[in-house]
Sequence to fold (504 residues):
Amino acid sequence: MQSVDKKNWFAERIPVDWNSLKHFTNEPVPNHLKRWWFALGGTPAYLFMVQLITGIFLTFYYVPTPEQAFESITRITYEIRFGWFIRGLHMWSANLMVIAVILHMLRVFFTGSYRKPRELNWIVGVCILLVTVSFGFTGYSLIYEQLSYWAATVGTNIAQSVPVVGPFMAAFIRGGEEIGPNTLTRFFVFHIGVLPTVMFIFVSTHIFLVRTTGVTEFKFKEQENEKEETFPFFPNHLLTELIIGLLLMYILTMLVVIFPPEMHQKANPLVTPEHIKPEWYFFASFRWLKLNSLIVGIIGQAVAVILIMAWPWIDKIFRRKNENSELSLWIGVAGFLAFLALTVWEAMV
Amino acid sequence: MDSSKKDDVSRRNFLSTTLMGVGLVASYGVTTFYAANFIAPEDKKKIYRSLYVAPEKSVPVGKSIDFEDLKGRKIAITNTGDGFKALSTSCTHLGCQVHWENEKNAFYCPCHEGYFDSDGNVTKGPPPAPLAKYDVEIIDGNIFVKVEEVYNAIS
Fold:
């Protein structure tokens, strides 16, 4: 009796139709999702949560000024209890997140899941990738070591070289005509305020669209005899995700213990070191800039992003004549191999 | 009678809607303008002034010295024999610092492998323009360079 009262008490105060909400959140999951590589979308989401929590912890000690940024991270890394572990988790989950987003994108691309009616969600996904690398860029600039300083210089100068809006954009990001004290504050605000908000909006939209358009369904040979087409999200799929979460925590902890974060040389605005490289996910872009003139280097990359975003419609053109055209697949393979080749090339020298 | 009453109401409606609309646009517009100005960096007029570097004699022919402008940007000042030249060491590609390499006989930028000759002209790589030059003056046997004035440490 008492429990019914309690139920009513909440029902009156939170007047929501719980049954339809249950229906909306407890999506029946197609059988192909029992395969782990179809659960790659949940991986970046999990890693993002790790970064959100460790990121909040790091802000307890980080000081975003050119005088103190490097010193405060040195303290986090070498003095504060388990600072190395929290910072290590933050760093490694950031790197793994870039990998996970790329893998998820490859899976979606090569299974053609971006096609009608999921074109918009593909674009949202590409935006999530861009926000992810922006997190990386602003994040490692905050450390204020040599790599941070020169990456921020190169990155904001790339923005400056964009025709028409470039100079304003660069001045806005830097908080002035050159890298200065304003820049670090702005990068900090982008990293812990603006980008997380934008990411939250994109990820919510992404999940909402996945839920409303449904995921693409695949049939595998050995599943043909299964009676049920789907299995319940709760508890079955949630358990799969939990297992992936456990595995990720294991991998992250191993990485942090074996390769803990370190401090390198403090930023020196007067000297660009002889061997300077950005984080690995910018290697391809970095190599491309070395190979081409400034304008081709920048416009080429912008065109690549626009092409990727527009791919659902480009693919439609390919398949207008021949429904089974595999042109998209081959261009995708070529594009990804080119990205890998540029990345490896930069890593080798 | 009826129709005029209707007109009255709609006129009143129209007026109040318009006023509301104008008020909304004006207030949010002004706020947006102020907010945009708040986060946009200040656009200050550039003023230049001459800065003392060193006595002319202290830089023999063929030698060069490093100097910093008021913003802390590095300048390489060289005695060419015909006079002095002052080159900015900020790469014109994406802003990294170039340095002189004797064996390559060039200014080299380690970021994207740009090369400049001793006059600052691009000889190889992606930089789109020669290194920036500063005006040099010799007054009473002393070297001066023209650099941008700095108002405060923040700008």
About this structure: The beta strands of chain A are 28-30, 230-232. The two ends of chain A are 74 Å apart (CA to CA). Chain A has a mean pLDDT of 89.
